[in-house]
Amino acid sequence: MRLEAEYTAAPGTPRAGVVLCHPHPQYGGTMRSLVTSALFEALPPAGYATLRFNFRGVEGSEGSWDNGVGERDDVVAAVDALAGELTSSAPLALVGWSFGGDMVLSIADTRIAGWCAIAPPLRFSDGAPVAADGRPKHLVLAEHDEVRAPREIADAVAPWTATTVEIIGGASHFFVGRTDRVVAVVDGFCARLRSAG
User: Fold this and answer.
1) For residue 162, what pLDDT is reported?
2) Full-model pTM
């Protein structure tokens, strides 16, 4: 099965690699959705080799919706593709928004240096695969999230290991007018992975 994807190399040696996972395919989510597009535009010039892709059955990707099960395989396929483009010194971060955030928190692949989940509803994953993992996890939540209250998410992840939570003030689940803040947070997270490596 072939998945549609776009890759942008960083100028020079990449500071890190980033795989971007988009929102819920059944509600119009694609790799061109707002937050995913803002990150895909901003991260490569900042030094990050960046890959975004469409989950199975979305736009040019083959297959069909699999209720968040087969979609985990799609994330691993994207990690495979990006890992092949990176040097061993460049950490690889998984970054996902909404449903994509849940998918990110479902993958405990040893090649991943850290996870950044943006407004994950924790409905397609409770994060169990990564909750006790010592690698860094950062959740970026919206103050006025309409899908699930940020306090509920923060409480759910409070027992997790190596996990931080940041709430973006004034933001809705869609981060309209706040994508610059999301970009800055993801940039900072990826920079920390590079420093830690």
Assistant:
1) 98
2) 0.97
